[in-house]
Design a protein that fits this description.
Layout lengths: L1 H17 L3 H21 L3 E3 L2 H22 L10 H17 L3 E3 L1 H17 L6
Antiparallel strand pairs: 1-2
């Protein structure tokens, strides 16, 4: 009996570890906002008009990343899954352009921005995308 209870508790703990809590979501959005802001500053063809656009873009990027990861299993970090993660990160950045007002990015800006985000993601602890 005790063995079965231990297995059930371990399964429950593993299931909970897969879910996100509010603290993890807020930290992820904050890190995403910082990384996207730095990438916009360093990348030609990538601009953000104001702080609210940056915050909204961070929320949208985190949500799109979560949805892509949940439905396809592809990790959207630029260096997370090689070329696939890089392309997915660039697509997420470019798609954010159509959702967030004040978030302007070109196709080349999205590609270079995904590269910059990947490099910054290695330096800053946490997960940006």
């Amino acid at each position: 009996m005790d063995n079965n209870e231990d297995r059930n508790r371990n399964r429950t703990n593993q299931d909970k570890s897969k879910d996100w809590d509010i603290g993890e979501i807020l930290i992820r959005i904050l890190v995403t906002a910082i990384v996207v802001g730095i990438a916009a500053f360093l990348t030609p063809g990538f601009s953000i008009n104001n702080l609210w656009s940056l915050i909204l873009a961070a929320v949208v990027i985190a949500l799109l990343d979560y949805l892509v990861q949940k439905f396809t299993g592809v990790n959207a970090t630029p260096f997370g899954r090689g070329i696939t993660g890089f392309i997915v990160a660039a697509i997420i950045l470019y798609a954010t352009k159509f959702i967030v007002p004040g978030f302007n990015i070109s196709v080349w800006g999205a590609i270079i921005g995904a590269l910059v985000i990947g490099i910054i993601d290695v330096i800053i602890p946490g997960r940006a995308m």
